[in-house]
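Researcher: Before we compare anything, I want clean individual predictions. No alignment, no superposition, just each chain on its own. First chain goes here; please echo the sequence and then give the structure tokens.
Model: Echoing the first chain and its structure:
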Amino acid sequence: MSMQARPRVVVVGSFNVDHVWHCDSLPRPGETRAGHYRTGPGGKGFNQATASARCGVETVFVCALGDDDGGRLARALAAADGIDLRAEDSGEPTGTAGIHVDVHGANSIVIGPGANGALSAEFVARQAEAISGARIVLAQLESPVESVLEAMRIARAAGVRTILNPAPANALAPRELLAVADVLTPNETEFAALLALHSSERIDPAAVAGTDDEQLHHLCRTLLPRSTVVVTLGAAGAFVSHREDKCRGDEHAFYRVPAEDAQVVDTTGAGDAFNGALAASVARGGEGGFIAHVRFASLYAARSTEQPGAAEAMPRLPRQPEV
């Protein structure tokens, strides 16, 4: 990483228009339930870019948008938060998501990729200058794998750190993509799916949080021997596993960070809040090792759950001094 690089985060990913129904409980197959409807911006990429920008760090967002109201909404919101939007024009409609949220804040989501599925590696490659001048490149898997891989490869070639949020769990995350991630941030479901895909190890997602620390560290090292794995565990916090000789300023190769208390209203964007805040904090630098960045991201994610919505629920923080 160039020491002259500004604390910039480049996020490569998705923008969706979210259609959200709040109801007493999530509908079961064949069931019709009454609920309260609202719409707003979302998409894992945009949520994470919004979180990064609202943490006070210069943020570039690379995506694809349709020529429609959703695309115009994305441009307006990015401008309002000072996000440098790099959008590929697509003949597909802007991405959408249908979200059900119950009274406990739990959710179920169906995604219509639209333009997100049309983000091209060629367009990403044209953003090489912005990517190479960043401190962190953050990506998820609601965009084509080849486009995400292009961004990560450009970053690695320039000495820029990369964070891969391998979400959603059913997305393809090939070994070559994991190999260019400096930090991997799966939740329990994603972690179990990646282990099943890339190793002989198996674990029930519901058992991840309760697994012994040494065993969980072993599983993380099995999945990604050379890089850091941060498994987000919802209300149980996060588990961090480093390569033994690359602990990123931490005293221990593996440890847990407890979740922060929150008055939960809606968990829809909590994982994205964590990832965007983690990227912003690492980009900014500072003392205290990697654990300080994870603690910051955990607190930011907790606060994001106290408001309804995804991107619009990301807390706004004052701009911090650059390090």
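Researcher: Okay. Second chain, same rules.
Model: Second chain and its structure:
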Amino acid sequence: MVSISPLLSVRHLLALSLALNVSLMLSIILEKAKLEERVKGCPMKLEHTNISPFTGDGEITDNDETIINLDHGNPTMYEKYWQQMGDRTTVVISGWQFTSYFSDIKNLCWFLEPELAEEIIRLHRVVGNAITNGYHIVIGTGSSQLFQAALYALSSDATEPVSVVSAAPYYSSYPVITDCLKSGLYKWEGDARAFDKTGPYIELVTSPNNPDGFVRQSVVNRSGGILIHDFAYYWPQYTPITAPADYDLMLFTISKSSGHAGMRIGWALVKDEIVARKMVKYIEVNTIGVSKDSQLRASKVLRVISDGSGLAHRFEGETFFGFSHRDMELRWYLLREAVNKSEIFSLPDFTPEFCNYWSRVFEPLPAFAWLKCGDGIEDCETFLRGHKIWTRSGRYFGVSPSFVRISMLDRDPTFNLFVKRLSRIRSPE
């Protein structure tokens, strides 16, 4: 047997590590150069906006009086893509269709349309962001209803209210939804990092996180805990798809995957059959199922996305994820330019990672910007409102009001107006 000197082995390892790091840096530099080249030829500049947010045409003259409302995550940026698709996602429903409550009585989730179930499985397989084998699919009226159904299912046998926690900054609707009904089954307990109570608990893990965009793991590490993973933003336009998610209970929504928030369709992938049945029971009692009309539309939209996302089409601009990813790259580039010009704001820095879907390295491009005000501005939301920019304060997310969450998903004219105005804001002093 040939023996290899330890010194030689270490040298080889160091050389390999150096080569990998150089390759990673070259990939990042190349992608940045490509983005800058696209920006040069793109009409979306800080100095110009070409379309009115009200009429759809004409040029916006920013007189600092127009209210820019970026408080909500309304994904209207996707409208232009679906307009280009024409009738490819048009659905015609005859008057006699969908008169029954039931979709598939043999399925655990009896109100789930088989066509939608097939397209959900297919999309996850194409994107590679979640395992579906061995899971039950539970459909809901948006992921908000599924979140409530999950809370019920995971706490229905508890003898005392189960604590519900999430690491701050957490999604601002979690406390509201959890305590809305003042249920005796569960109770909001705030920041998971500060949680020190004994007994059972449910931890909400949103990854990428809303509002700050970082990839998350659970932080409460002890017995008696149950995890709910919210993967609303684990799609290739927002973040590198590093591996398929494989957790006990995972939530997804069409509102952030395709931009069709008005459909009110979400789905959960649930391993435990008993938990899945309890979630179905909650939705049955709550709304007696989910709109079949919306399910049919959702299945058509997901089919169009998957059809354009095969290996032969992933890098073409007309595919949904290609369009969305490029738009998000450009928006984040422009926002960082505006922040640099202003000099009183800051944004998070993200670590680039290799994306299995795109087969390249890129930095996360979150659906929300987690902006911090400097120069002694303690209430960033109020400060920006003075410039007629509406945002959501960090206090709703369990942190300092010096932070605000800003939607990156509005229509082009609104976003263009926002970055243009933000770039002109200077210190109040």
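Researcher: What stands out in the second chain?
Model: The two ends are 74 Å apart (CA to CA). Additionally, Confidence is low (pLDDT under 50) at residues 1-8, 41-59.
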